[in-house]
Amino acid sequence: MKLVFATNNQHKLEEISRLLDGKYDIVSLNAIGCHEDIPEDHDTLQGNALQKARYIQEHYGYDCFADDTGLEIEALGNRPGVYSARYAGPAKDSIANMQKVLEEMADTDHRQACFRTVIALILNGEEHLFEGRVDGSILRAPQGEAGFGYDPIFQPEGYTVSFAEMDIDEKNRISHRGRATQKLYEFLSQHDSLEDKR
Ligand code: IMP
């Protein structure tokens, strides 16, 4: 089954293709010839995920899903949240984003944070939402080279390493996007078995 994932982020494509177990043919925006910047101007994860999925469905006609993720830091009033990608400016620079967070948190021991992902799926004209969350804490300095975004400064609860020090399968098992994708996968599996019985 072919499903468009509304992203060109190679890390995310790889993560999600692994999670969906090779069962679905996950296709990127480049692969369908979509090279424009899809608008995402809502102030909630859910609003942005739906906006991206609807855009692809309306302009390209494919069944598709889109995700939106935010890092919510308690000491910063849940910032950067929905503004995580551009926290330090429009360049979407991960190093600058992490630096800004570390500077803002230099004087606090309150390090509690979570990543939240919302996935919006449009299948046969119907919309479905799936949410995943992982709790953890913000480190005092970046650790590790793997992953992307804020991975080097996020340590998931129950671990002594950052996301950027885990291998991709280990991160996937517990991550925000991994958990949301697991729900998407269960939904698609159920949907497939219903279709098979028809
Ligand atoms: P997006 O909505 O998935 O594009 O995520 C917004 C921003 O959150 C990204 O630009 C990253 O900076 C950050 N982000 C999303 N997912 C992750 C992750 O798995 N690890 C670290 N940072 C992430």
CATH architecture label: Alpha-Beta Complex
CATH topology: Maf protein
The end-to-end span amounts to 17 Å
| Secondary structure category | alpha/beta
Number of helices: 5
Q: Total strand count, please?
A: 7
Tally of domains: 1
Label the overall shape.
Answer: globular
Computed over alpha carbons, the radius of gyration is 17 Å
Which ranges are low-confidence, i.e. pLDDT below 50, for 5 or more consecutive residues? none
Q: Main sheet? A: 7 strands, mixed
Element order: H for helix, E for strand? EHEHEEHEEEHH
> How much of the polypeptide forms β-strand, as a percent range?
15-25%
Name the bound molecules. Answer: inosinic acid
CATH domain class: Alpha Beta
Q: What share of residues is helical?
A: 25-40%
Calculate the mean pLDDT score and round it: 93
Descriptive report:
The chain is α/β, with parallel strands linked by helices and 198 residues long. It has a single domain (2-197), classed as Maf protein. It is 33% helix and 24% strand. Strands 1, 2, 3, 4, 5, 6 and 7 form a 7-stranded mixed β-sheet that branches. The protein is globular, with a radius of gyration of 17 Å. The structure holds inosinic acid. Inosinic acid binds at residues 67-69, 71, 84-85, 92, 94, 97, 147-151, 163, 175, 177.
